[in-house]
Specification:
The protein is mostly helical. Helices cover 80% and strands 0% of the residues. InterPro entries: Diverse_Substrate_Transporter (IPR051258), EamA_dom (IPR000620), EmrE-like (IPR037185).
């Protein structure tokens, strides 16, 4: 979700691809990592992860962060993106806690492009394409299948329903974050048209002020999240055994993962990077089964495959008229 600092020399395609692969893998470890800090509420995980990680990413963006906050044309979009990111931080970890790592991750990731298309249709009057409709139908079918598989094994219940709702809220708020960044980049760059969704980071990585805008979003979001965790999560911050997990989540999936993804985008492009990033739900599901002890079965894996397939349809380069 952010561009990397440092040299602008474009990395080799193989190196860029490796960076995206590593980013997707570390993102996929997020849910399993929370398993090693039992008893910590979801809001504490979200607040610490994006609070610390957001401050680091804002600092890495440096002056660009300040410029995006100060300039009128980007300030409002940065505030909107930060608000969405705060909600996403809490909703995503709540989904992992209540729906499970595999199901929560799959629904959050699978629903985000669906919501992104709806947001653009409602706010920008951008018509949906046949490819988006096909991808949506496939992804939604996959989410239904994996949900049924999970409810059939665990018996369903209020916690599962709440977890699914949290995952959908995470998908919606990530789509709103992406749309706000896209609109902010459009405002900063003039006539550049920026679609919302997973590929928005590619545009941010390649446009002037893009890194600063994303840094501003994360930096602004970090403020209420830090306050939230200090006020509501003090007992959990005082437990030294939780800090290895907190620091891992903030520095590895958040800071390192997003920075590597931005580096990879400079070499392999948005469509390839988005396709490779589909490793995330697969890694999350594998670790959920092997480490956390969740059960998916053949039906659950089929649902995950459908979600990944639907997202792959969106990630592939579009042909005219599609």
């Amino acid at each position: 979700m952010t561009a990397s600092a440092g040299t602008r020399r474009v990395p080799a395609p193989a190196g860029g691809l490796a960076a995206v692969v590593v980013a997707a893998v570390v993102w996929g470890t997020t849910g399993t990592a929370t398993h090693f800090a039992p008893g910590v509420p979801a809001f504490v995980f979200g607040a610490v992860t994006f609070g610390i990680g957001g401050l680091v990413l804002a600092a890495v963006a440096g002056r660009g962060t300040v410029r995006a906050v100060v300039e009128r044309r980007t300030r409002g979009w940065a505030l909107l993106g930060a608000t969405a990111l705060v909600l996403y931080a809490v909703a995503f970890y709540a989904a992992l806690a209540d729906a499970g790592v595999a199901l929560g991750t799959t629904i959050a990731i699978g629903s985000s492009p669906v919501f992104a298309g709806l947001v653009e249709w409602a706010a920008d009057r951008r018509p949906v394409t046949r490819r988006w409709v096909v991808a949506t139908l496939v992804s939604v079918a996959g989410m239904v299948v994996v949900t049924l598989a999970r409810s059939g094994h665990d018996g369903g219940g209020g916690a599962l329903a709440l977890g699914i709702a949290s995952a959908l809220l995470a998908g919606l708020t990530y789509a709103l974050y992406s749309w706000a960044v896209a609109r902010g980049l459009h405002a900063a760059a003039g006539a550049v048209s920026v679609p919302a969704g997973p590929g928005v980071e590619a545009v941010a990585a390649g446009l002037p002020n893009g890194r600063g805008l994303v840094g501003a979003v994360f930096g602004i979001a970090a403020v209420p999240l830090v306050v939230l965790v200090v006020v509501g999560g003090a007992p959990f911050l005082g437990d030294g055994g939780n800090w290895p997990v907190f620091l891992y989540l903030a520095l590895v999936p958040t800071v390192l993962g997003h920075s590597l993804y931005a580096v990879g985008l400079r070499a392999v492009g948005a469509s390839v990077a988005t396709l490779v990033s589909l490793l995330e739900p697969v890694v999350a599901a594998v670790l959920a089964v092997l480490v956390v002890g969740e059960h998916l079965g053949a039906t659950g894996w089929l649902g995950i495959a459908l979600v990944v397939g639907g997202l792959a349809v969106l990630a592939l380069p579009a042909r005219r008229g599609c």
